[in-house]
Each structure stands twice: as C-alpha cells, then as structure tokens.
Specification:
Elements (H helix, E strand, L loop, with lengths): L1 H20 L2 H17 L1 H8 L5 H12 L5 H12 L6 H15 L2 E8 L5 H15 L2 E8 L6 E6 L2 E6 H13 L8
Helix pairs in contact: 1-6, 2-6, 4-5
C-alpha cells in the first residue's frame, strides 16, 4: 500500500510538471521504457531495491542504461529519488504515472483472452462495444489461452466478462453434481 501512495505522490507531481511544460507524452514514453525494463529484467529491480549497492553506483547504472534518452523531467526525477534512496519504487512510480495518464486521457485498458486467435474485425467489434458501454477510449491486449476451449474472457479493471466454454462446462458440471433428483436403482 505504501508503494501506491508513494508512487501516486511522485506521479502526481511529475504529471502536473509535465502538463505545465507540455511534455506529458514524452514523460509517458520514458515511464513506459522504465516499466518495460523493470518487467523484463528482475535483476534490474533487485539492484534498485538492494541496500548493499550505494546510491551513486545505482545512479551510474541508471545513467548507463537510459543515458540521456530521457527528457529533463524524468532525468531530474530519477536523480531525486536516488538521492532520497527511493529508487526501489521507480517501477511503482512508473505504473502510477501511466495509470494517471490513462485517467487524464480517458483511456481504459483491458486484456482479452481467447482460445484461438481472433480476427482484427472481431477485436474491433469488441473494442467498439466496450467504448460505447464505458464511454471511454479502450486499449486491448489480446492473449491466446487454449485452456478456455472456446469463447473469450475480457478483463477490464476489476470487471471480468467470461464467455468461455470452459466456464460454461464447469457450471454445467456443478449443476449436475448438485442435482437432488438422482435415479435410484
């Protein structure tokens, strides 16, 4: 919980500053890169969280990885959080900034899992229905999950729309298991 609060504080400040300077999109790109590196490299996250590695060494590593590719706002933020020994929260700050960016721009993200690949037209229809229902711009990540057997499962935030065959079969099995009318021999 502390990660969310801390991440929100930094993300709010950075978002306001980025809006004032007209660099909201540029900062978003920087945080997407940070998020991608943190998710793809657990050793990088372990290094950031390690109390054994000194802050100046961490700053040197961050400069070596990201160089001067970041805008001034992001670069300054990284220097501040390293100086305050909060570099272990960098991934959380990136997550919260991207969440607040989506909220600011009325973007909803969801995961669409299906048993087989869906066509671009099918995905577009699902996207259109969600955008109409939620009155928001909708971004879909499509994943293949053969365990669904057929149909799809759509996760949007804390909501789940399950139209999979595996769920229907499970419900049918439960209905048969709880059937009080068992034929006696």
């Amino acid at each position: 919980m502390i990660e969310i609060k801390l991440g929100d504080r930094y993300a709010n400040s950075i978002l306001v500053l980025a809006q004032e300077r007209g660099q909201v999109e540029r900062v978003r790109e920087d945080f997407q890169l940070i998020q991608k590196v943190c998710r793809s490299n657990p050793d990088f996250v372990n290094m950031l969280e390690s109390p054994l590695i000194k802050s100046d060494k961490k700053q040197h590593i961050l400069d070596a990885i990201f160089g001067k590719s970041f805008c001034d706002i992001t670069q300054t933020l990284i220097e501040i959080i390293v100086r305050k020994r909060r570099e272990g929260y960098l991934d959380d700050i990136a997550d919260r900034y991207l969440f607040q960016y989506d909220k600011l721009n009325n973007i909803t993200r969801g995961i669409l899992r299906s048993a087989a690949p869906l066509t671009a037209d099918q995905i577009a229809k699902i996207k259109q229905l969600v955008e109409k229902e939620f009155k928001t711009s909708f971004e879909i990540v499509h994943e293949i999950d053969p365990s669904l057997l057929g149909g799809f499962v759509l996760n949007i935030g804390d909501r789940q729309f399950d139209a999979s065959i595996s769920t229907r079969l499970r419900a049918l099995k439960n209905e048969f298991d709880s059937n009080p009318y068992v034929k006696q021999v």
